[in-house]
Design brief:
It comes from Mycena venus. This is S-adenosyl-L-methionine-dependent methyltransferase. This protein is of the alpha/beta class. The chain is 47% helix and 12% strand. It contains 21 helices and 10 strands. It has helices spanning 3-28, 44-47, 52-72, 75-83, 86-97, 100-107, 114-121, 125-137, 153-156, 164-169, 181-196, 199-204, 214-218, 225-228, 235-247, 278-286, 298-311, 313-317, 351-364, 412-425, 432-441; strands spanning 112-113, 142-145, 148-150, 268-272, 291-296, 321-325, 337-343, 370-376, 444-450, 458-465. The strands form 2 sheets. It has a 7-stranded mixed sheet with strand order 6-5-4-7-8-10-9, sandwiched between helices. The protein starts with a helix and ends with a strand. The mean pLDDT is 93. The structure holds S-adenosylmethionine. S-adenosylmethionine binds at residues 226, 245, 273-275, 279, 296-297, 300, 327-329, 343-345, 348. S-adenosylmethionine binds next to loops.
Length: 466
């Protein structure tokens, strides 16, 4: 097809999607949240973004706009700019770790001069202005007057919700109780970015005793990431990671799909590698007839106990919440589970280790035990169907040409996670075929799949013992 006609098709996709958004917001009497205003998750206009028509329009706009831009840009500049995009990540880390977002929240809509921000942060004023300008150029912050910056929609999601004096007086707790977005951004821009810089070196070393993951090269350690985070000197990145898991990976769709209400009273839901325990807590709050068993490594279990005590003490007092330090590569101690829950676990491990984790659960399972997995299911980037499309709930729509079948950058987070898992842990985000293979090898039959109905990236996979 002639490129001009493709260009027009892409522009029409955007135009139709904008019509859909305007119509839906118009009918609701609400206004689409502005990019110039801070994000407010309690605003009812925000909830409307999850509407099916709007979600679909949003995906189309993101995919078509990126494709249009890639089509018309100078490819030499496009490639070189992409090679420098790590600087966006570094600048975001500076803004988040120096609490610039909170300083700007306190400054209000008129914003603050980069020199004043730099003085509070005790850093160079000129570099601060250049960092904020690069981010503002990518729609994170706005430059409201020369050298004067204010928060906007994208910068404000990094707000940790505390005053700058509270953040400065207690730096060890600066992320505690925050939404998790800043924690995930700092984790990714620190451990993630430094590790990813060694992706090539890690993948081109000869496999064998000396082969290392990118993380191990970057941090000059032989410890796997989770063991490294157990060391006392790495307490801050470990705590930051626990907070990151709560907000950046919203868990509410764990309550959809699998029917938790049908589990028997007192049935044990074992949250294997449950981290802070927020997922089992969400399930137990909605279905208080269930008993939650939180399993993780020592440090995470400490945090999990504290989190439960603060947010759902009633369940603890009734003896319906248990905490176990358990290595999921060891034999599973719970032999009467109603459900083994594995959320965000399998993607941390290559197939061979994923199979070990799954086999240990399989050995402890009763015929009635179900395995509920919460993970991203990587969409294929091709239009040809796969052998797993026949599993109930599995198939997903593909975007119409000329868009890429997976909506391109609109689903980029799954592919970014995939390679983050590779660089940090040797892990992988799996396609549905990939899940079916590791499950079958460990003695589990994939019986149903539930994709998120509210636009969240994680899907649910339910398996039964073979
Ligand atoms: C990506 S987090 C997921 C946490 C939680 N399931 C969630 O969805 O938020 C992975 C978890 O696996 C835990 N983990 C890593 N290695 C482990 C092991 N060998 N045994 C038990 N837990 C482990 C980590 O401590 C971390 O809490």
């Amino acid at each position: 097809m002639h490129p001009i006609s493709t260009l027009r098709q892409l522009s029409n996709i955007i135009s139709d999607a904008v019509d859909d958004i305007e119509r839906t917001y118009g009918a609701s009497g609400k206004a689409l949240p502005s990019i110039d205003q801070p994000f407010n998750q309690n605003d009812s206009a925000e909830a409307l973004l999850k509407d099916a028509v709007i979600s679909s329009a949003t995906k189309n706009i993101m995919a078509a706009a990126a494709q249009l831009s890639a089509t018309v840009c100078d490819p030499r500049r496009g490639a070189v700019n992409m090679s420098k995009s790590f600087l966006l990540s570094s600048c975001l880390r500076v803004a988040s770790e120096l609490d610039v977002v909170e300083l700007l929240r306190e400054a209000g809509p008129k914003g603050a001069n980069a020199a004043d921000i730099a003085a509070v942060c005790k850093v160079d004023a000129g570099i601060m202005a250049r960092i904020l300008r690069l981010l503002a150029t990518h729609h994170v912050f706005q430059e409201v007057a020369p050298g004067v910056f204010a928060n906007n929609r994208l910068s404000s999601v990094l707000d940790k919700g505390k005053s700058t004096s509270a953040l400065r007086s207690n730096p060890a707790d600066r992320l505690t109780g925050s939404s998790g977005v800043a924690a995930m951004a700092e984790h990714s821009a620190d451990l993630g970015a430094k590790s990813a810089a060694y992706l090539l070196e890690a993948m081109t070393t000869t496999p064998g005793e000396d082969s290392k993951l990118a993380f191990n090269i970057a941090f000059d350690t032989t410890e796997p990431l989770y063991m490294w985070m157990q060391e006392p000197q790495n307490r801050l990145p470990a705590d930051r990671f626990s907070v990151a898991m709560t907000g950046a990976e919203p868990a509410e769709n764990i309550l959809q799909g699998f029917d938790w209400s049908k589990l028997p009273s007192g049935g044990r839901v074992v949250d294997v590698g449950g981290g802070i325990g927020h997922v089992s807590l969400m399930i137990a709050k909605r279905y208080p007839h269930l008993r939650a068993v939180n399993q993780d490594l020592g440090q995470a279990i400490e945090i999990s106990k504290a989190h439960w005590k603060e947010t759902f003490p009633e369940h603890l007092e009734k003896g319906l919440a248990e905490f176990q330090v358990h290595d999921f590569f060891a034999p599973q101690p719970v032999k009467d589970a109603a459900v083994f829950l594995l959320r965000g676990i399998l993607h941390n491990w290559p197939d061979a280790q994923a199979v070990v984790i799954l086999r240990s659960l399989r050995s402890a399972a009763l015929p009635s035990t179900r395995l509920v997995i919460g993970e991203r299911i990587l969409p294929l980037a091709s239009r040809v169907g796969s052998k797993t499309d026949n599993i109930p709930g599995a198939s997903r729509p593909t975007a119409k040409a000329p868009l890429l079948p997976n909506w391109g950058p609109a689903t980029a987070d799954s592919y970014l996670y995939d390679l983050s898992m590779q660089t940090l842990l040797g892990g992988v985000e799996r396609t549905l075929d990939g899940f079916q293979e590791v499950l079958a090898e460990a003695g589990w039959l994939l019986v149903e799949v539930h994709h998120s109905q509210v636009g969240l990236p994680m899907s649910q996979l339910v398996a039964a013992p073979i």
